[in-house]
Amino acid sequence: MAGSTAARSSLKSQLTRFVAVGVLTAAIDYSLTMILIGVGANRQLAKAFGWVFGTIAAYLLNSKFTFGAALSGSKAAAVLTLYASTFAVQNFLWWATDVPLQALGFDGAVKNTISFVIAQGVATLTNFFMQRLLIFRPKG
């Protein structure tokens, strides 16, 4: 029973830290994406550029702050592989929400923000559970 409580506490603590890091790194991603769109960059390329910088920050912060793990080449490669797969899903959702949101009357920054939140939310949950279960799983 005590082990179960500790595991839940650890899960809650890690999820809280992961979300805090995620808010910060999503802000990096979002800001760069919106700035680039604002200066005329292609919507998809702007999103990719923002994602790269947000992902680098997320790996560095989550390794230490969320999971208490040392930085390593193998963990970085595993996170990169995971984030590349969720990037594909995230970019698909970013693209797929464009026309339906326009049909609902959303455009510009509002449409892009709704698309971002949907895509980021799915990616964040997927990334947390995959990292916790496979990449940064506790020893023992």
From TrEMBL:
One of its GO terms (cellular component) is plasma membrane. Residues 17-136 form the GtrA/DPMS transmembrane domain. The keyword Transmembrane applies. It is found in: Membrane. InterPro entries: GtrA_CellWall_Glycosyl (IPR051401), GtrA_DPMS_TM (IPR007267). The chain crosses the membrane at residues 18-39, 45-62, 114-135. Pfam families: GtrA_DPMS_TM. Keywords: Membrane, Transmembrane, Transmembrane helix. Belongs to the GtrA family. It is a multi-pass membrane protein. This is Putative membrane protein. One of its GO terms (biological process) is polysaccharide biosynthetic process.
